[in-house]
Write a structure and sequence with these properties.
Helices cover about 40% and strands about 15% of the residues. It has about 450 residues and is of the alpha/beta class. The protein has 2 domains: about 10-45 and about 360-405, Urease, subunit C, domain 1 (Roll); about 50-345, TIM Barrel (Alpha-Beta Barrel), CATH 3.20.20.140. Bound molecules: zinc ion. Zinc ion binds near residues 56, 206 and 297.
Length: about 450
């Protein structure tokens, strides 16, 4: 994923510490670094760690795949709120650990937390335990009745505390992390943008996954959301909005002109029936140089933390929408998953490609996995022929996180036990019961 998109057949990567030292022919690098330990990819495809630009690392993780798929988000999200509020530091750390393990196993090495966290330091602890990269932030809204809602000053003070605690440079970086939608007043939105600019970090929030946000802004301000955000100084390179599905042409132009970024989460829109195939302009924006990354959203929206699944849907959706296979495909989608995703989150100087000087975030696919037998064009096969399940090894900053398809930093069986018990306790504590569509027969 270097600027020429070179695919080296039989290449090797020399790593020193957390960085990539050199990329080149295997024989040459072996001769140059005879003392180096060797990880043999054994003919498997090796690519940069992938970027997930929108993921709720905590929140609903412990109620994964419980929310019925015939509920619209305006029903399921408020329904989930008691579950969010019932989280403790321990349960959020557990959730973040689980999300991070799932990410690592799918070759995702960098995740932008999407904005529903109570205990940002516990999120950071979970992510660091696993050893991937992420941003952290605290739930930020001035909307009454939501967790942690307060005045703009109160919310901004909490955001600032996270930025102070997690400066750029480590595995976990603090970002301004607002809920967005219509749930922040102007003071919060523009204050958040100022904070992000001042600290040199990103700001993320949700906007326009469905038509509610445009309708709300039109009713309140007689302007569409992105027009309003432009007017109050929120747009810019620091901004990454989740979704941006229901943008009109003028909003698209504003996003492109201001170089604001979008996290595109196609499986969430499909699962929730939000209209991405009708309204989404992500592929067009991407081809015009727009900063678009891929995201998986929440476990009750996309359910999996697998960016390759998002990539295949992004490519398929683009082709089908135009009834034209020629304009956007696996290569563009894989760019979104790697280098262009890193550009969208403002970290392409460190992440997203295998080049000397960059962080050694490396994914190796298993050449012996059925999805890779026989081997075809690597990009076509990555996007259309496989997904996260053929990931064999993952390194983050030169450190091994996944070996032979297993996470080596945390014990998944221990996590399973803790998650199962904790999920049951959360259901008991909140009294939430999600209906099953088909009858469940107990005790057979
Ligand atoms: Zn979200």
């Amino acid at each position: 994923m270097d600027k020429d998109r070179r695919i080296l057949d039989g290449g090797a990567i020399a790593i020193a510490g957390e960085r990539i030292l050199e990329v080149g022919p295997t024989t040459a690098l072996k001769a140059k670094f005879p003392q180096a330990g060797i990880v043999d990819a054994n003919g498997g495809v090796v690519h940069p760690g992938m970027v997930n630009a929108h993921q709720h690392l905590t929140g609903g993780v412990l109620i994964k795949s419980c929310v019925p798929d015939d509920w619209p988000s305006v029903r399921s999200i408020p329904n989930n709120i008691p579950m969010h509020q019932a989280q403790t530091g321990d349960t959020e750390e557990l959730s973040a650990t689980l999300s991070a393990v799932g990410s690592a196993l799918n070759g995702v090495t960098m995740v932008i937390e999407a904005g529903s966290v109570n205990f940002p330091a516990r999120l950071a602890a979970g992510v660091r335990k696993v050893g991937i990269r992420a941003t952290t932030g605290v739930w930020g809204t001035t909307h009454p009745g939501r967790p942690h809602s307060g005045t703009a000053d109160e919310v901004l003070a909490r955001q600032k505390a996270v930025l102070d605690e997690f400066p750029p440079g480590g595995l976990v970086t603090g970002w301004v992390t607002l809920v967005g939608h219509s749930m922040g007043n102007d003071e919060l939105m523009s204050g958040g943008a100022d904070l992000a600019r001042q600290y040199g970090v990103g700001m993320t929030m949700h906007m326009s996954p469905i038509k509610d946000d445009p309708e709300s802004y039109l009713a309140r301000f007689n302007r569409r959301p992105i027009e309003h955000l432009a007017d109050i100084g929120v747009l810019g390179r620091h901004l990454l909005i989740g979704h941006g599905v229901w943008l009109d042409d003028s909003e698209v132009e504003l996003m492109l002109e201001s170089e604001s970024a979008i996290a595109y989460c196609p499986w969430a829109y499909y699962r929730l029936g939000q209209g991405a195939s009708l309204m989404g302009k992500h592929a067009e924006m991407f081809l015009r140089g727009g900063r678009i990354g891929l995201g998986c959203d929440a476990v009750n929206a996309g359910d999996q933390v697998d960016i390759l699944r998002q990539a295949s849907l992004a490519a398929g959706l683009a082709k089908d929408k135009m009834v034209d296979p020629s304009w956007f495909g696996a290569h563009e989608a894989f760019e979104m998953a790697t280098i262009r995703g890193a550009e969208a989150i403002g970290m392409d100087h460190l992440l997203g490609s295998i080049e000397a000087g960059k962080m050694a975030d490396i994914v190796i696919h298993d050449a012996d996995h059925a999805n890779w037998i026989p081997k075809g064009d690597p990009i076509i096969q990555l996007v259309w022929g496989t997904d996260g399940r053929s990931v064999r090894d993952v390194f983050v900053g030169g450190k091994e996180v996944v070996r032979a398809g297993r996470c080596v930093t945390v014990d998944l069986l221990e996590l399973k036990q803790a998650a199962t018990e904790t999920a049951a306790a959360l259901f008991a504590k909140t009294g939430i019961v999600y209906p099953h569509r088909w009858p469940h027969i107990e005790g057979v």
